[in-house]
Design goal:
A seven-stranded mixed sheet has the order 5-4-3-6-7-9-8, with helices on both faces. A two-stranded antiparallel ribbon has the order 1-2. With 260 residues, it is of the alpha/beta class. The chain is globular, with a radius of gyration of 17 Å. A hairpin with a 2-residue loop joins strand 1 and strand 2. The protein has helices at 51-60, 65-75, 86-98, 113-121, 135-147, 161-170, 189-199, 225-239; strands spanning 22-26, 29-33, 103-107, 127-132, 154-158, 177-182, 200-209, 243-248, 254-259. Bound molecules: S-adenosylmethionine (SAM). S-adenosylmethionine binds next to helix 4 and strand 4. It holds the Pfam family Methyltransf_3. This is Catechol O-methyltransferase domain-containing protein 1.
């Protein structure tokens, strides 16, 4: 018997499929148009209807009940495809636990699935600096952060993430963080990486999401700034002597950079 069965419907996987936060109009509400894709469509390496992916979830996912509740709640959201894949979130929680992280950064919170995921495994005095520009999304997850009893570990900062990272650096917090997850607008991914690298301690980890960008990195178009930006960072990381790396074909692709 699987530990947890995740229906194909809800096991949506990662997938921030776009980037350029031009604003779109949908059902009378304004949601970010992510550059490509439509609400509810999603991409994963194996495909959300892949029996193999379902097998992976059935045989590896150990999801906290409140985390599952937030995932199911987010599934109803028109932009549920932005939520990180649950298997990838579990990998990050395992890494956070393994390195005994106390201070972590999340760049791009959405409804807070991974924020909650990391807060659940941090010690009681641990902190997640959670960066987003959209408070409405986080409002969906906040009651569940509270229900899980980890609200006190989450410091939500609603402003452009670059500003939050600069404030942390200016506040003398360089080399004090253990883990960072970069999962926001792709045009800024290099800036996020460079600032996180300064904030992270040696031995710390930076996880960069969507590094395969639905396969677009294979042939980045000149006018597609998001794909260009991801591709340039991928090329730079390959030669970056400040880190060891692994690029993992999970979700929409995640690179783990281990600070040396
Ligand atoms: C892919 S979603 C994040 C998913 C989230 N990590 C999770 O666990 O489900 C990207 C988020 O980045 C946020 N975002 C976009 N541009 C941003 C910026 N400049 N600064 C901070 N957050 C930003 C969006 O509002 C959106 O909530």
């Amino acid at each position: 018997m699987p530990l947890l069965s995740v229906s194909k419907e809800v096991a949506v996987g990662t997938a921030m499929l776009g980037v350029a936060f031009a604003t779109g109009l949908l059902a009378g509400k304004r949601y970010p148009s992510l550059g490509f894709g439509t609400p509810k469509s999603s991409k994963t390496i194996l495909g959300k209807s892949s029996p193999l992916w379902q097998y992976i979830l059935d045989h590896s996912l150990r999801e906290h009940p409140i985390l599952k509740k937030l995932r199911l709640l987010t599934t109803d959201h028109p932009w549920s495809k932005m939520m990180v894949s649950c298997d990838q979130a579990q990998l990050m929680a395992n890494l956070v636990k393994l390195i005994k992280a106390k201070k972590v950064i999340e760049i791009g919170v959405f409804t807070g699935y991974n924020t909650l995921n990391m807060a659940l495994v941090l010690p009681d005095n641990g902190r997640v600096i959670a960066c987003d520009i959209n408070e409405e999304y986080a409002k969906i997850g906040k009651p569940l952060w509270k229900e899980a009893g980890v609200e006190h570990k989450i410091d939500l900062r609603i402003k452009p993430a670059i500003q939050t990272l600069d404030e942390l650096l200016a506040g003398g917090e360089a080399e004090t963080f253990d883990f960072a997850f970069i999962d926001a607008d792709k045009e800024n991914c290099n800036e996020y990486y460079e600032k996180c690298l300064r904030l992270i301690k040696k031995g710390g980890i930076i996880a960069i999401d969507n590094v395969l960008w639905g396969g677009k990195v294979l042939k980045p178009r000149k006018d597609d700034l998001a794909t260009q930006s991801i591709h340039h960072l991928n090329e730079k990381l390959l030669r970056d002597a400040r880190v060891s790396i692994s690029m993992i074909p999970m979700g929409d692709g995640v690179t783990l950079a281990f600070k040396l």
